[in-house]
Design brief:
Structural class: alpha+beta
Strand content: 25-35%
Helix content: 25-40%
Mean pLDDT: 94
Largest sheet: 11 strands, mixed
Number of strands: 14
Number of helices: 11
Low-confidence stretches: none
Order of helices and strands: EHHEEHHEEEHEEHEEEHEEHEHHH
Length: 324
């Protein structure tokens, strides 16, 4: 089955870069998979508007196609009842992907937030866990540089398939936080060549790791998750969203530390409900609103409230950084 779903593989005999293979797959799948072609075409009608939240701004995107993801039921019972849409045997007949290093299948996302939106799914049905997959995550960031960033949504932080390990990729710079770091980053410490920073006046709890050593990036990230687990007093993976990139021979991980999955307004009824289910893209400043009412009505006070509600406190963030 995997061979039937493999469009090409990387590394392969063609010597083409991973970016070139991404573009080739994207073009071919639009020709042969109507669902993707429709999703890409729908992006032409997507509306955006920017709201000023004081010390930062947020870009809202009205994208009706994303209702499936934003409204996804991710409780254990719902997950058990449905077929996993990322398992190779359950993919649509027309869908194919790039086999990445024999372990991941790069798939075009049929409900894109931006052009060239990919889901990078493990070939095995294993739970979402970045701690066990941090090395391939870093490898992907380097192999896709400088064209794409890679991001991860924790199983309780926006992943619509928490039961199946996967990443996603976006064209570099499309998630606002990537371009806004310089104005907010404050270095807290250096550890074995890894710079650890937080973002001031950004409305969210963010840790940024930067360094040239892949091994030290891995070790520092795992130290961070260990400290978070102890601080939050949980045996589960700490709640987080992570965006990775590779620039100027250095890796960068932007890590949003979470306290909740969805904000209180998500669970209200009637007109008071706001269907915003933040994942990496939303935490990074591009907030997807699949309902037009929400796109028109969401304002700065509400976004400030949502970010604050979903994040850990500044005191806890500082404590975590100190203990790394």
């Amino acid at each position: 089955m995997l061979s039937q779903k493999t469009f090409t593989q990387f590394p392969g005999t063609s010597q083409r870069s991973l970016h070139e293979l991404f573009l080739q797959l994207y073009a071919d799948q639009q020709l042969h998979w109507p669902m993707l072609a429709g999703g890409v075409a729908a992006l032409h009608n997507v509306q955006t508007r920017t709201i000023d939240c004081g010390t930062f701004s947020v870009r809202l995107q009205y994208n009706p196609k994303r209702i499936v993801s934003s409204g996804a039921k991710v409780d254990a019972a719902s997950i058990q009842e449905r077929k996993c849409f990322l398992c190779v045997g359950n993919l649509p007949p027309e869908q194919q992907g790039i086999l990445y290093k024999e372990k991941f299948l790069v798939l075009c996302n049929p409900m894109p937030i931006f052009r060239e939106h990919f889901t990078i799914s493990h070939i095995d049905h294993i739970p979402q866990s970045i701690e066990e997959q941090i090395l391939p995550f870093l490898s992907l960031a380097k192999d896709l540089s400088p064209h794409y960033s890679v991001f991860y949504n924790g199983p309780k932080c926006g992943a619509s398939a928490p039961d199946h390990m996967h990443f996603q990729s976006a064209p570099s710079g499309m998630i606002p936080v990537e371009m806004e770091l310089l104005g907010h980053a404050r270095i807290k410490k250096n550890l074995n060549g890894i710079t650890i920073s937080s973002l001031d006046r950004y409305g969210r709890s963010v840790v940024v790791l930067e360094g040239k050593s892949k091994q030290e990036m891995e070790l520092t990230f795992l130290r961070l998750t260990s400290v978070l687990r102890k601080t939050m007093k949980t045996n589960d993976e700490p709640m987080m969203n992570v965006i990775a990139s590779f620039l100027n021979e250095s890796w960068r991980l932007i890590i949003f530390i979470r306290s909740k999955h969805r904000p209180a307004v998500y669970f209200k009824e009637g007109e008071e409900r706001v269907l915003i289910s933040p994942a990496s893209v939303d935490m990074g400043g591009l907030v997807v609103t699949p309902i037009e009412k929400d796109f028109r009505s969401v304002d700065a006070p509400l976004m400030n409230e949502i970010y604050k509600e979903l994040s850990v406190s500044e005191d806890m963030l500082n404590t975590v950084i100190e203990k790394i």
